[in-house]
Design brief:
Layout (H helix, E strand, L loop, with lengths): L4 E10 L4 E6 L2 E6 L15 E5 L2 E6 L1 H13 L2 H12 L4
Antiparallel strand pairs: 1-2, 1-4, 2-3, 4-5
Length: 92
């Protein structure tokens, strides 16, 4: 199962390729944030985003991100599997 999971941007690690390091429940991975540039504002450190297959798909507020995470955690094994897949992924 592929879920859109919330993460918080820690830092932009490659501005030209629009890659940011994101914290997803303690797992740190690089994701592409370029899809969120279309509104002219983009995202940066401290912002919360929903991530799917290595891309930040939308910006969300902290309350929505934490509620989404809570609901995903309640899914149990499916959420844990998604975190394991995230741990194994690499975007550089």
């Amino acid at each position: 199962m592929c879920l859109a999971i919330p993460g918080q941007i820690v830092e932009v690690v490659d501005e030209s390729n629009r890659l940011a390091r994101v914290d997803v429940a303690g797992v740190h991975r690089n994701v592409n944030i370029g899809l969120l540039d279309s509104d002219g504002v983009g995202v940066g450190p401290g912002d919360w985003v929903l991530i799917h297959v290595g891309f930040a798909m939308s910006k969300v507020d902290e309350a929505e991100a934490l509620e989404t995470r809570r609901q995903l955690q309640a899914m149990g094994d499916d959420y844990e599997a998604e975190l394991e897949e995230l741990k194994a992924s690499v975007i550089e």
